[in-house]
Amino acid sequence: MPRRTATLEDVARAAGVSQQTVSRVLNRPEVVSARTREQVIRAMQALHYVPNRSAQLLAGKAAPSIGLITASLTLHAPSQIAAAIKSHASLHQLEVAIAMPAQADFVALQARLDELRAQHIRGVIVSLPLESATAERLVQDKPDMACLFLDVSPEADVCCVRFDHRDGCGACVRHLWELGHREFGLLAGPESSVSARLRLASWREALHSLNIARSTTVFGRLERRQRLA
């Protein structure tokens, strides 16, 4: 039979103190005597008590957090990006709150940002393909939140992480050319992705620079189950 989850009341009873004292140990430990703090902590450990995160948020005592707005984590690329963000955030003792809007439009994104703000989060990574106008409007609408975008145009007037698609695609094409290949194919990302469109343009530019006429482009999606025949 599963063990019943310990409550704040259980901790108070085990430590022989009031529930208010347990709450102070969690939220304002400096106002509680060392002896009482030790009693409460021992009781928490014995009962395997886990503080309620929602209550801590209300008290302003939750671990510092950042937000991540992303596509469904059932998709391969978004899940890999989210895993990397969480891994690096943990190195800096940061929690990551993830929001996944059904649509990548302004209204849906605005709602997700409002949800993250309600959790006292003021820094958000937006890992969704967005047109410049949408990204800029979000920043203007939420001046108290720092937003970092991962898939926007280089011309967008927002903070973003960009990759040099031109040099990267050029290096790939030249490498294959030097290996003796003369027919090229590109499995591009979804056409809705700004980064995918930039890579495609850079790819075509690199092919043109080497006078390569024979090439094939196939637009794919992000699902792991999809395969190029």
UniProtKB/TrEMBL annotation:
The keyword DNA-binding applies. It holds the Pfam family LacI. The keyword Transcription applies. InterPro entries: HTH_LacI, Lambda_DNA-bd_dom_sf, Peripla_BP_I. GO terms for molecular function: DNA-binding transcription factor activity; transcription cis-regulatory region binding. CDD domains: HTH_LacI. Residues 6-60 form the HTH lacI-type domain. Keywords: DNA-binding, Transcription, Transcription regulation. SUPFAM superfamilies: lambda repressor-like DNA-binding domains, Periplasmic binding protein-like I. This is Lac operon transcriptional repressor. The gene is lacI_2.
